[in-house]
Specification:
By secondary structure, this protein is mainly beta. Helix content is 12%, strand content 33%. The protein has a single domain, classed as Thiol Ester Dehydrase, Chain A, CATH 3.10.129. The chain has helices at 32-38, 98-111; strands spanning 5-9, 12-17, 71-72, 79-84, 120-128, 137-148, 151-159, 165-174. A 6-stranded antiparallel sheet has the order 3-4-6-7-8-5. Strands 1-2 form a two-stranded antiparallel sheet. This is PaaI family thioesterase.
């Protein structure tokens, strides 16, 4: 396919990226202070983290990884985290590379399915509207959008402090057998 990118290892296709035109619906905005408060409920902090070394939501030392810990927003089906963007993820142009913005959208859509999820990411479709900068504070929000057997569907978004949408994604997660 034209403009596709694939990643293989030892002759095995591991991942493929293709451009798509698709409408993405973000979960609703959660103000930063409420999102940061929700982190206290992040299931991964209680020792039940399936991948504690995850670059996005893993229990890494400060400055190592994105440290996005989405917890349940009280009274909703949302999870959220207040993302304090580390300077260690800055690109040469002074902003966070778009690939890392995509990464930030990954885990919240999976953790939105707690206690069932997050499972293993099967597909992520995203769109980035604005740049993300180090030392910035953003709300990262996730919401479950459905389930079909072992497949979990979710949406995620990154918002600026004033509620401006930065990026949005939808994901398909697969639960183990």
């Amino acid at each position: 396919m034209a403009n596709s990118i694939s990643l293989s290892y030892d002759g095995q296709l591991l991942a493929e990226a293709i451009p798509v035109v698709e409408e993405l619906t973000p979960p609703p905005f959660v103000p930063f202070t409420e999102a940061a408060r929700a982190e206290e409920g992040f299931v991964g902090l209680t020792g039940e983290h399936p991948v504690p070394g995850c670059f996005v939501c893993g229990l890494r030392a400060p400055g190592d990884g994105l440290r996005i810990f989405p917890g349940r927003v009280e009274g909703t089906d949302l999870v959220a985290a207040g993302w304090r963007v580390p300077v260690t993820v800055t690109g040469d142009d002074g902003a966070v590379p778009e690939a890392l913005v995509w990464a930030a959208l990954d885990c919240p859509s999976g953790w939105a399915h707690t206690p069932a999820g997050p499972g293993l990411l099967g597909r992520l479709t995203a769109r980035v509207f604005r740049r993300v900068y180090p030392n910035g504070t953003y709300s990262v929000v996730g919401r479950p959008t459905g389930r079909d057997g072992r497949k979990l569907f979710g949406a995620s978004a990154i918002y600026e402090m004033d509620g401006t949408l930065v990026a949005v994604a939808k994901a398909t997660w697969i639960l183990p057998r």
